[in-house]
Amino acid sequence: MHAVNPDESDLRELQTRYGFHDLDIEDCMSENERPKIEEYPGYLFCVLHLPVKSGNRILKEEVNIFLGDSFMVTITEGKGETIAKLWKELQASDTASSEYLGRGSGFFLYRQLDRLFDAGFPLIDDMMRELRRIEVELFEKEEGKINILRDILTLKRNIITMRSIIFPQRAVVALLQHKREEFIQSELSIYFDDVTDAIERQWTLLDTAREMSDALQETHESWLSHRTNSVIRVLTIFSVTMVPLTFMTGLYGMNVSLPLQEAPYAFEALLALMVVVMLGLLGYFIHKKWL
């Protein structure tokens, strides 16, 4: 059976029906339980964390699984729909029910884990598409580069979140292969190897995505630094060009006698001199390739 965000009375009813340990019920009610596997005489208790997407963020969903010889109980928070869809398929189709349940609870656990971890690949594909979009905007477009930083940081947060979710599951799923044959038959090891391989592929893809996001952030920071330097260079040249002009206007603005100040064309001569000085400085800067 499958339960979505049950309250304590529902969990106690399950405990009475199947004989679950009190500590397991407490774990199901806890909001931040670590991924683990615990073995009891009549069942296995598994706590798994899975990534789910909400808007543009990756969130963590906790999945609690009770596995017995002839039963399975899954408890989720309701953030993701993968498990709920699987149980609906079983209820709607006798063929699916016989395919998934006909080979025992251990095989059904494999099919659930296979569905759950396969659901992570579309999330990683979305991340890779977002990385390519950011790369195109960063290297091929002139406008909008300043706003890319928010997209890069959002993507890096999702990558970090998903890595923190996936990492503990590698050990937990690997441990399932070594549990008693009462729960996990030895011939199912190859199937659980397939789930482990899927987790490892996701981990490798996330490593690649992390390296790409780091490189894009460094590139964006280099572009911002270059843009800032260009602006500072222009402002510096403008300031240096204005210094001699300011000096001349300040000098001839003094209330003292100065050479040629009584000449008929003193203002025009001073203005021409200022233009010559400004053009000379600009020519020098162009010659030095500072402009």
Outline the structure in words.
- With 291 residues, this protein is of the alpha+beta class.
- It has 2 domains: 2-227, Beta Polymerase, domain 2; 252-287, no CATH class.
- The chain is 64% helix and 12% strand.
- The protein is built from 9 helices and 5 strands; from the N terminus they run E-H-H-E-E-E-E-H-H-H-H-H-H-H.
- The chain has helices at 8-18, 22-29, 82-92, 94-101, 105-118, 120-140, 148-176, 189-251, 266-287; strands at residues 2-4, 36-39, 43-54, 57-68, 72-76.
- A 5-stranded mixed beta sheet has the order 1-5-4-3-2.
- A hairpin with a 3-residue loop joins strand 2 (36-39) and strand 3.
- The longest helix is centred in the last third of the chain and has 63 residues, at 189-251.
- The chain is rod-shaped.
- The N and C termini lie far apart (73 Å).
- The model has no long low-confidence stretch (mean pLDDT 80).
Give the distance, in angstroms, between the N- and C-terminal Cα atoms.
Answer: 73 Å
Q: How many structural domains are formed by the residues? A: 2
CATH class of the largest domain: Alpha Beta
Report the uncertain regions: none
Report the CATH architecture of the largest domain: 2-Layer Sandwich
Summed over residues and divided by their number, the pLDDT gives a mean of 80
Shape from CA axes? rod-shaped
Strand order of the largest sheet: 1-5-4-3-2
Q: Give the DSSP E fraction (strand runs of 2 or more residues).
A: 5-15%
Oligomeric status of the shown chains?
single chain
- The helix fraction, in percent, is 55-70%
